[in-house]
Amino acid sequence: MNNTSFASLMAVAIDKLPGIMQLSKRICDTAKCVDFLAPLFLRLYLAPVFWMAGTKKFANFSDTAEWFGNVEWGLGLPAPYVLVFLVALFEIVGALFLLFGFATRPITVPLMVIMVVAAISAHIQNGWLAIAAGSGIFATERTIGAIERLERAKEILQAQGDYQWLTENGALVVLNNGIEFAATYFVMLLALFFLGGGRFVSADYWLARKYLPELAPKA
Questions:
Q1: Mean pLDDT within 145-173
Q2: 175: buried, middle or exposed (CB in 10 Å: 19+, 13-18, 0-12)?
């Protein structure tokens, strides 16, 4: 294709662009009838995440508090027993609120704070990746070194153990414990803060319809 042909093609594309954009908008707008699915799926994804996190903290309350407060091998946070109680309580209550779509926007605020504190206090020193990788834009010396050790561990297990049995339910990986999950949950909560619980399938929607009809999302 010579320069003249390319210029002509670009001129046609630019001329057609407004019409293409309008067509794209009309097609996308037809999906608005099911826009409640987005906040619903976000809520249903996050609810078990926070439920498991909160109930696990209560089930291992003393051990978790020691980890929260210990300066040498833990997070070194003040008032660890109070913090564990509050974090676990917000996570469990948050899980229930998200599940039913009740007070969706307010409950995302403390949950986002928990994610930020967790990312800064427990994960940020490990980089981005939750699972170690030896290559890619988020790979670091730490994750590359972890993969080298993982390959060595695989060699040992293949030579001396039943490697097929060990890996039949999943591949061996190294937990890097970076901020990836905390950041992902934060972004999802942030979306819910602006979207709310969604139409039809949240308690917020029906309560607003009953008590604040002028503010309720339009069906």
A1: 93
A2: exposed
